[in-house]
Amino acid sequence: MAGDDKDATLSVGVWRGDADGGEYVEYSVPHRASQTVLDVVTWIQRNIAPDLAYRFACRVGMCGSCAMTVNGRPRWTCRTHVDKVARNGRLTIAPLDNLPVVRDLAADMAPFFEKWKRANGAFQGGETRDDPIAEVRPDEPERKEADAAIECINCGICYAACDSVRWNPDYLGPAALNRVWALHNDRRDVARDDRLAAIGGEGGCHLCHSQAGCTAHCPQGLDPSGGIAGLKRALFRAALKGTV
Fold first, then answer.
1. Of 200, 215, 219, 90, nearest to 154 (Cα)?
2. Of the candidates 216, 234, 236, 238, which has an alpha carbon nearest to the alpha carbon of residue 73?
3. What fold, for 110-241?
4. pLDDT digit string (tens) for 124-135?
5. Count of CB atoms within 10 A of residue 107's CB?
6. Contact predicate 217/158, CB 8 Å
7. Where does residue 223 fall: left (phi above 0), alpha (psi -120 to 50 degrees), or beta otherwise?
8. N or C: which end of the chain has fewer CB within 10 A?
């Protein structure tokens, strides 16, 4: 195994630059056993390029902040082992696609979260603390749909993998629509029709081409594409009823 050879090295192309442009810079990095892509980036920053900008936090696949593009595919770098993705001892590492670049490997997540706002992605309840606690059975089909969709941790992997976002930057994207699907299936929420109206207009769910890149790349194993299909059906039914 290459990672067991103390003299083994990796050839790593790292994107360096900012919003105005940049280029790939080549680095030679020691190849070690059980090495992750985040380990590689950290080694470069600590040993060669102290000004390299990138994000990470938990290092164990809980926060999603270390998401980058590795050999052309968006991934959590803390859970991506070099031996599984390196091609002939080579890696290319870049910031997430479909987002502005702050600097180097750090993407600007502001547009990603702005689309959550546009989609009305906040829970809106109709009861107060003085009302009885709503009874929600965990085995209800709607609750199961909500529970599955709510596991999103906002890492941006699906957004970076979405060709519809690439073709039309106004598209809300799979993460925001996945959030809407979770809320749509939460019967405690009272803003379903308003939310459907928000995602039925310009940049809404109709722009999804159902290629399911979001589902294929989601590190959490979620199915945003299936949720978006559900929203399209819900929007159609609401339109027939005249509620949106």
1. 219
2. 216
3. Fumarate Reductase Iron-sulfur Protein; Chain B, domain 2 (1.10.1060)
4. 999 888 999 888
5. 26
6. yes
7. beta
8. N
155 in Cβ contact with 186 (< 8 Å):
no
User: What residues does each domain of the chain span?
Assistant: 2-107, 110-241
Fold that domain 2-107 belongs to in CATH: Ubiquitin-like (UB roll) (3.10.20)
DSSP result, 61-109:
SSS-TTEEEETTEEEETTS-BHHHH-BTTEEEEEPPTTS-EEETTEE--
Q: What CA–CA distance (Å, rounded) separates 68 from 147?
A: 27
pLDDT at 1: 42
111 CB contacts (<8 Å, ≥6 apart)?
Answer: 99, 100, 169
Exposure string for 25-43, b = 16+ CB within 10 A, e = fewer: bebebbbbeebbbbbbbbb
| Nearest CA among 65, 57, 52, 66 for reference residue 14 | 52
Question: How far apart are alpha carbons 198 and 94 in whole angstroms?
Answer: 33
Strand partners, 81: 36
Those residues whose C-beta lies under 8 Å from the C-beta of residue 233, and which sit 6 or more positions away, are none
pTM: 0.92
Per-residue tokens: 155: 């890492």
pLDDT one-digit tens code per residue, 144-195: 999 999 999 999 999 999 999 999 999 999 999 999 999 999 999 999 999 9
